[in-house]
DNA sequence: CGATTTATTGAAGAAACTCAACTCGAGTGG
DNA sequence: CCACTCGAGTTGAGTTTCTTCAATAAATCG
């Protein structure tokens, strides 16, 4: 029974844990919190003394620019730790929002540091998780910087599906994706109107369905081709079949 | 005399090192290499067994998309470790190129791991460095996703100046920036032609000079305003006056 | 010096944006 | 129960930003 601590399920997915390690992980206190959709969780400039593992819902990391528009830089789902980096960066550099109702399992930085010290293998895996976040950021720079709208959205949908599948949330090409078109526009840097039209194009080509909080991919190969998608930047521990 | 090992100068900037730590750092073997401009250093898909500290020159991290165009996701200067993440991510997820002639100080992953294990405080600081990279990636997503050309380039120039100043490379508003307009276009996701025209606009407004491998900022406040620049995402250990 | 990048310019076209109106569905409250 | 509101999605039309293509000037390098 490994699921009695949020970090256990996360870390056990990546490696076989020793008895000692399991005990140490269980010693990390967890404080759960519920957040309603569209609530801010942490604000740019905050100095959090704990990080949270997302055990239900979807959050995003975003910034507001001079004109008042907002860019979403990262999306986080079940099992992610959206603010792991605050463990070593004192000041939070972006806002973190709940896109849906969420459950957050907070863990004090002090205990996470202690865990890292006592069990370097676990520390390395937490470090690794932040590096994967960085890799995803890089791919988002590419996506927003180089791909035009249809390709850009296709790529995003591919990523969502693979990550959802890996988190155990997807089945038969369908996964939860409870975001609005306005959210999509802030993830892609496109205007809401253009997102709408691009969605229609993707639907019209029979590639996807999107709505009612769900994403369904009908033609994986087609979407991968359109989105120029390769999953290596996700650094998956093992291959994932997103359509299974 | 701390400058006899590349990691020493890097880490000593962030914290006061103990005798033990200094000895441990000195024990990390360094192998230096020279790379000519426009040479690839590491390729997407590589499995490096060492990382390098950049002790001279400029490198960038980039990817090529389906159409053959290239996006630069990160720029690295003196003191940076562009591939630190390969310490825990087996496969390199992007290409790393030398923009200018460079000197690379390679350090085996095995020794870096040993250092992390024996001196967690140093390990944390290396981790921290990768987190700052991640923060910069996030800001680049914002930059490319939301800001229009003049603002986008202004922001980039502000970042370059602050980072250069912090690395001890800038003085009186001037720093080395030996990149072509084509490089700028790949950093910003703009076409080379548009970069050229935007540069002319910035020059015309008396904000900057750029060319001959150097960047000069004439009106810091103006550039900051235009670029919507705030330096908090760089997580500077201490305030930096980029124009001093 | 010629050769080859790099920078610059003009002009036409495409992708994406803004603005504004309209539809639809899910509440909410009278 | 129905009218109303409010958020989300959709559509049309005109505009802007940026791109592409192609040609020329300037700078750099061997």
Question: Any key phrases for this structure?
Answer:
homodimer, alpha+beta, Jelly Rolls, Arc Repressor Mutant, subunit A, 2 domains, three-stranded antiparallel β-sheet, 8 helices, globular, DNA-binding
Description:
2 copies of one chain form a homodimer. The first copy, chain A, is α+β, with helices and mostly antiparallel strands. Chain A folds into 2 domains: 6-137, Jelly Rolls, CATH 2.60.120; 147-234, Arc Repressor Mutant, subunit A. Helices cover 41% and strands 20% of the residues of chain A. The first copy, chain A, contains 8 helices and 10 strands. Chain A has helices spanning 6-14, 19-26, 109-118, 120-146, 149-166, 181-188, 192-204, 220-227; strands at residues 31-35, 40-42, 50-56, 59-64, 70-76, 95-98, 102-108, 174-176, 208-211, 214-217. In chain A, helix 5 (149-166) crosses helix 8. The model of chain A has no long low-confidence stretch (mean pLDDT 95).
Chart the SSEs and their pairings.
2 copies of one chain form a homodimer.
Chain A: H1 6-14, H2 19-26, E1 31-35, E2 40-42, E3 50-56, E4 59-64, E5 70-76, E6 95-98, E7 102-108, H3 109-118, H4 120-146, H5 149-166, E8 174-176, H6 181-188, H7 192-204, E9 208-211, E10 214-217, H8 220-227
Antiparallel strand pairs in A: 1-7, 2-6, 3-7, 4-5, 4-6, 8-10, 9-10
Helix pairs in contact in A: 3-4, 5-7, 5-8, 6-7
Chain A binds a DNA duplex (30 and 30 nucleotides) through helix 7.
Brief characterization of the structure:
The structure is a homodimer of 244-residue chains. Chain A has 244 residues and is of the alpha+beta class. In chain A, 41% of the residues lie in helices and 20% in strands.
């Amino acid at each position: 029974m490994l699921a009695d601590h949020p970090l256990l399920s996360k870390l056990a997915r990546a490696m076989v844990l020793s008895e000692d390690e399991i005990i140490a992980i269980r010693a990390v206190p967890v404080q759960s919190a519920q957040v309603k959709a569209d609530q801010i969780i942490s604000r740019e400039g905050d100095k959090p003394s704990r990080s949270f593992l997302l055990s239900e819902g979807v959050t995003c990391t975003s910034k507001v620019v001079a004109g008042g528009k907002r860019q979403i830089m990262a999306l986080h789902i079940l099992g992610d730790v959206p603010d792991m980096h605050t463990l070593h960066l004192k000041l939070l550099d972006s806002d973190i929002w709940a896109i849906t109702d969420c459950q957050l399992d907070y863990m004090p930085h002090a205990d996470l540091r202690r865990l890292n010290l006592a069990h370097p293998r676990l520390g390395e895996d937490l470090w690794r998780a932040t590096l994967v976040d960085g890799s995803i950021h890089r791919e988002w720079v590419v996506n927003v910087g180089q791909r035009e709208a249809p390709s850009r959205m296709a790529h995003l949908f591919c990523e969502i599906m693979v990550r959802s599948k890996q988190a155990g949330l997807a089945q038969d090409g369908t996964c939860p994706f409870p975001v609005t078109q306005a959210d999509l526009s802030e993830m892609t840097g496109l205007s809401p109107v253009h997102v709408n039209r691009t969605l229609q194009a993707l639907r019209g080509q029979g590639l996807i369905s999107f709505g009612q909080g769900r994403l369904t991919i009908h033609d994986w190969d087609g979407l991968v081709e359109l989105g120029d998608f390769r999953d290596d930047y996700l650094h998956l521990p093992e291959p994932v079949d997103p359509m299974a």
